[in-house]
Amino acid sequence: MTNNRIRCLIIFIVTGLLIFLIVSTIIYLVRRSEHRVIHPDACPRPKQYQTNYDYDYTKNIKEFRNINSSVDYFQLSLSWSPTFCGGKQNSHNLFQCQHVFGFVVHGLWPSKNKTGRGQSNSIHPRNCRNEPPIPADVIKKYFCLMPSEKLMQDEWEKHGTCYWQKPEDYFEKINDLYSKIHIPNNINDILNNGTLGYKSIKQSFIDINPQLKWEEINVMMRKNKLHEVAFCYDLYFNHIKCI
């Protein structure tokens, strides 16, 4: 009788482990299939990458450092390249503006909840560590997300250092989040129609991203020009209401 109980217990444990392994494998494969690998030909690339792109916030009088703020949520911000290039002085010298880009990643920002109106952006974590230039292989791998070596370095030091230890981890998280957002192909049509505005842009994202809710997207427009579209996440990188 005792041997039968032991045998049944062993069978039960082994069966449970097999089920656990099968379910874990399925979850892993599903998540892997959702992850977008950046193909080398996914965007235009420079014949020669920049080598002088280091960043030092102390050399910019408008910059500040905040290493004491908590991280309450994250914001992934996408910049509309035509507006950026149209309003940037000497934009013809920028690789991004010499080619046709739509949305590019502006950055992934660890952020602090505001407790009242009128609080400045200085409450958010910023410039937490001074870092050496990002390795060239990391620049090349994620260039199609942020087609500017300087932008990548700036965003890594301004924001990434306030939560991540390595630039590879920061940009891989950006890639992971961005790969799960489908980009509408009718943005230009909306912008060319003077009667449509930010609501139409927001709705165009929701139409092809059923996981998103209206309040989980921020669309920033000024003078009928689209600047940014942002998505908000909790500390587990689930979509949340944008504050």
UniProtKB/TrEMBL annotation:
Alphabetical list of InterPro entries matching this protein: RNase_T2-like, RNase_T2-like_sf, RNase_T2_His_AS_1, RNase_T2_His_AS_2
Family assignment from sequence similarity: Belongs to the RNase T2 family.
Record-level Gene Ontology MF annotations: ribonuclease T2 activity; RNA binding
Keywords for the protein's UniProt record, in alphabetical order: Membrane, Transmembrane, Transmembrane helix
Transmembrane segments: 9-30
The protein's name: Uncharacterized protein
Native organism: Adineta steineri
Keyword Transmembrane carried by entry: yes
Pfam families reported for this sequence: Ribonuclease_T2 (PF00445)
